Amino acid sequence: MSIRLHNIGKHFGSGRQRTRALEPINLDIQEGELVGLLGPSGSGKTTLLRIIAGLENPDRDGGARILFGDRDVTDVHVRDRRIGFVFQHYALFRHMTVFDNVAFGLTVMPRRNRPTSGEIRARVHRLLEMVQLESLAGRYPAQLSGGQQQRVSLARALALRPDVLLLDEPFGALDAKVRQDLRRWLRHLHDELGFTSLFVTHDQEEALELSDRVAVMSNGRIEQIDTPDDLYRAPGNRFVFEFLGDVNHLEGEVRGGILTCGDARLSVELPDGPEELLLRPHEVRLVEAPSPEARLPATVTAISPVGAEVRVELAADWMAAPWLATVRHADYERLDLRRGQRLYVEPRRWHRFPEGRETRRDAPRASLA
Ligand SMILES: Nc1ncnc2c1ncn2[C@@H]1O[C@H](COP(=O)(O)OP(=O)(O)OP(=O)(O)O)[C@@H](O)[C@H]1O
């Protein structure tokens, strides 16, 4: 079931208390797509999700329309939108077993639509099998871990075979490892059952790992919607670039193809004038000696060798804030990195956003000499 949003704006309050939560938003989600709504706190993610669910009304003056496939659901009650909902805080019925929680929505259906009790039992068992909780069907929510409870919520939301599944920070309250597992679950279930999903998160990694497309929101606007790959490689503006990961800043003055900032110098093919370059931690190399193109001295202030790469924090007078470099373990050993060590940073690539437009360059070619 595709979702089409047309001019969905939202104000809360009235008079002087009136605040805008969403600028009019247009968004098309394809059938079977899994889309992440990503943005900082207060950017409007939850409001947008609640409007799609029918738990909140959009502003009426902008011709707001919500379509599920060909069905206009703008004025359809939440109960009749055929939506599955999963919230951060597992809203399970505490006095019901896992089985009864998952079966609940089916058992309260109007008699004419309700499956037989045999069909309900079969469907619930199949769902519990899918979320691997069959052996816990007789337990009560209090006897489950947070991750297990959230899997029950997922199974319960899917029991009514919704056309659309909406998830609001579904894994927000869980620890890192359980979140990882549940992400795989959700992706797997989504692909197997083929529903259309929209989920809210403020976690960049989660959005990029799980989504077919990510909509990055700020101040009630969608700044950019793209595949994770395109978002990361070709951010549409500075906000998106900075929100999607760690960023190092190099601010200085360009004269005759050389950017100078304190005692740091970098050869650049840019016109004279003030300039700010942005670099991801993996876009810099650490070297023992300066090159003709780059002389950016720095001191190692912290090293974290945990994970696939080593994270190295760097300080220098020319930096407005400490830099972060990620280096391979092999380079970490070769350079024999230690705290207090002095070395040089060599940009391999950088980004700039003049007037909010993104441009990207590979490492400079021209010589400083
Ligand atoms: N019921 C409400 N009444 C008044 N203002 C509201 C209401 N709900 C949300 N807002 C405001 O609307 C804006 C968007 O809020 P929303 O909860 O959608 O953001 P969010 O991106 O989901 O944030 P978070 O990640 O913190 O949940 C915020 O400025 C918020 O204060």
Automatic annotation (TrEMBL):
Organism encoding this protein: Halomonas campaniensis
Keywords: ATP-binding, Cell membrane, Membrane, Nucleotide-binding, Sulfate transport, Translocase, Transport
Protein name: Sulfate transport system ATP-binding protein
Domain ABC transporter: start-end pairs: 3-244
InterPro entries, sorted: AAA+_ATPase, ABC_SmlMolc_Importer, ABC_transporter-like_ATP-bd, ABC_transporter-like_CS, Mo/tungstate-bd_C_term_dom, P-loop_NTPase, Sulph_transpt1, TOBE-like
Membrane among keywords: yes
GO molecular function: ABC-type sulfate transporter activity; ATP binding; ATP hydrolysis activity
UniProt KW S-adenosyl-L-methionine keyword: no
PROSITE patterns tied to this protein: ABC_TRANSPORTER_1, ABC_TRANSPORTER_2
Pfam family of the protein (one): TOBE_3
NCBIfam families from the UniProt entry: 3a0106s01
Lineage top rank: taxon: Bacteria
Gene Ontology terms: cellular component: ATP-binding cassette (ABC) transporter complex
